[in-house]
Amino acid sequence: MKLSPFLKVDTPTSFRDHPGVHSILFYTDINLCNLNCFQCHNRYFFSKLGNTEFMNYEELSQKLSMAKLLGVELVIVSGGEPTLEPNLEEGLSFVKERGFPIRLDTNGTNPKKLEKLIKNRLIDGIALDVKIPLLDEYTPNQKKRFKRILFSEEEVSDRALLEYTKHVEITINLIMKYSLPFTILRTVEYPLLTGEDKSLISESVKSLPHQFNPFYPVEE
Ligand code: SF4
């Protein structure tokens, strides 16, 4: 049986992942991501599980039938960075054909792929992580801190930082253009973010639903 793009992992359904909506969470390849954020929680979670197998389509079908019985209203697809997954469209179509709306969780760096998914009606919402203030230029101190947040190191080119900003801004414009129902913007309260950084982030997303999430350090 063909493998789906979603990892084989048991996650409980919840009303927390999308506030007030009964949802179930699927993950694409956890290591397939173009960022390497400071203490990435998803990677940590999977390193503890020690399992990186994918569900086949029969297993996915069973899981979705069970979700239907439990009254799940929304499928959330997280990663890794799901837009980098080559078989994503096929997996999303499979889920949509079974009647579930889908929210895609993204770091916002692949707006072209996101727009294609929206136009093909494969997603019904986007959870976008806005990790740093979106500015045209950064001070040396900001560069150091923001590179550590996005790449876990400071020895990354300034270009990579500005590319991140440019792509996330395009993604925000897409979110405003299409106004999908299950959309939310989030910022992890990394300890490296100052109060001023958080104000700047709030300012750049003020017309959209946005929340700050507490940072829980991963244990090593
Ligand atoms: S974008 Fe998400 S999955 Fe990728 S490194 Fe950052 S926190 Fe982890």
Automatic annotation (TrEMBL):
Pfam families: Radical_SAM. Transmembrane segments: none annotated. Keywords: 4Fe-4S, Iron, Iron-sulfur, Lyase, Metal-binding, Pyruvate, S-adenosyl-L-methionine. Its cofactor is [4Fe-4S] cluster. Residues 16-220 form the Radical SAM core domain. One of its GO terms (molecular function) is lyase activity. InterPro entries: Aldolase_TIM (IPR013785), rSAM (IPR007197), rSAM_sf (IPR058240). The keyword Iron-sulfur applies. This is Pyruvate formate lyase activating enzyme.
